[in-house]
Design goal:
The chain is mainly alpha-helical. The chain has a single domain, classed as Up-down Bundle (Growth Hormone, Chain: A). It is built from 17 helices and no strands. The chain is globular and about 60 Å long. The two termini are 27 Å apart. The chain crosses the membrane at residues 7-24, 30-51, 63-84, 90-110, 122-150, 156-175, 209-228, 234-257, 277-298, 304-324, 345-366, 372-392.
Length: 408
């Protein structure tokens, strides 16, 4: 499952960046690029919540396979339309929505599977291993997307994702049947209400959700990358890929050297401090872009290598900090939540993890359209630091969370 997820995720990241570049080429609008993410928000929320209920009622292996099939079909249609020259902004939006909804179900289900395969004391290490996977696929995928789009166009890039996605089926097919343990509640309103009631009683889980929403809403500049490569930093699609890959490089590096972090038992404090560092890195990224407004290259196709390197460094720090936070958040989710409830809570968790960046895309895209490209990350970094600090002070129980005695 890990190998299959890595290869499929590599192709998925390839497509994410390619769709952004494709929409920007068709429209020339940063706001239109941000709407790719926003359009899939409501379907993703519904799919994540319902998918979590399904994962708590049926065989998780079969459910993960079905979600992977839908994702593969939507990507294959995207590739076919592009090769035939029939792609439109509407089609790109629609297929991205289907893809994100299916991914939401698949991610919730696969994450709920992990605690059934390994003992609790290895969950933090497994989360770090997953961070290495994310680092590899995000680091290679966007950079490769920029090169392929610049050299060959969009059709081949989408097609590579179609091929890589096949590895997901092999990984999931090798798993045993994995039905949820404990009392099973069939999907529906009763199951959903039961999950929400559990979340209301779980102050630690609820607090980490809120912190992640804050970080991703105000500290997610991904939607600005196509415009940065075109009009501010220079370098076009290759710069877009490099900026995205820098985040992944930080994720990869922090996972690779996360042994001591994984053994730190106070996960609530770890989440708070990691997100504060994340906010500071995004603030620095905005400051670098502000400097870049005074140093724009006369030839916009010519990259400003010094500023690109500085921006990549700030983004790498943000990726590393976000990954450390993710290790603690995932471990808390998997260790403190019972198996019969894990699918529903993972569904909500996926909605938070995937929905936050979409809100961030709307925040960054809309604010950049009204002000300047540097303003959303500069303001957002400050907001992340302040809001997360205030929230942690309001919930002292969260700061005292002990991984050796997990309590939701």
């Amino acid at each position: 499952m890990w190998i299959g997820s890595t290869l499929a995720g590599l192709g998925g990241q390839l497509t994410v960046v390619t769709v952004m570049l494709h929409v920007f080429e068709l429209t020339g609008s940063t706001f239109a690029v941000s709407m790719v993410a926003v359009a899939g928000l409501a379907p993703m929320i519904i799919a994540g919540l319902y998918g979590g209920m399904l994962a708590d009622a049926f065989d998780r292996r079969r459910l993960a396979l079905l979600a992977a099939m839908i994702t593969w079909i939507s990507t294959a249609l995207l590739a076919a339309l592009t090769w035939m020259g029939l792609e439109t902004v509407g089609w790109l939006y629609l297929l991205s929505v289907v893809n994100s909804a299916a991914n939401s179900v698949g991610m919730a289900t696969r994450t709920a599977i992990v605690p059934r395969l390994i003992p609790r004391e290895l969950l933090a290490a497994a989360s770090a291993l997953n961070g290495i996977t994310i680092g590899i696929m995000v680091m290679v995928g966007p950079a490769l997307a920029g090169v392929l789009v610049a050299a060959t166009g969009y059709g081949l890039t989408y097609t590579i994702d179609v091929v890589l996605m096949l590895a997901m089926f092999l990984g999931l097919w090798s798993l045993p049947s994995l039905r949820p343990e404990g009392t099973v509640i069939r999907p529906g309103l009763t199951s959903l209400v039961d999950g929400w009631r559990y979340l209301r009683r779980s102050a630690n889980i609820r607090t980490q959700y809120l912190m992640d929403i804050i970080a991703m809403t105000f500290g997610q500049p991904l939607t600005l990358f196509p415009a940065l490569g075109t009009v501010l930093l220079g370098g076009g699609a290759i710069t877009t890929g490099a900026l995205t890959a820098a985040v992944a490089a930080g994720t990869f590096g922090s996972s690779l050297f996360s042994g001591r972090a994984g053994r730190y038992r106070w996960h609530g404090r770890g989440i708070e401090r990691a997100i504060q560092v994340y906010g500071a890195a995004i603030l620095a990224f905005g400051a670098i872009l502000l400097v870049g407004t005074f140093l724009r290259p006369a030839d916009q196709d010519s990259p400003n290598l010094l500023l690109i390197a500085a921006a990549c460094l700030a983004l790498a720090v943000s990726g590393g900090a976000d990954n450390i936070s993710s290790i603690y958040r995932n471990t808390m989710m998997q260790a403190a939540v019972p198996d019969a409830m894990r699918g529903r809570l993972q569904g909500i968790f996926i909605v938070v993890v995937a929905g936050g960046p979409r809100l961030g895309a709307l925040y960054a895209g809309a604010l950049a359209s009204l002000t300047a490209l540097w303003f959303p990350p500069l303001l957002g970094g400050i907001l992340v630091i302040v809001l997360v600090t205030l929230l942690a002070r309001r919930v002292p129980r969260f700061r005292d969370y002990d991984a050796e005695a997990p309590v939701a």
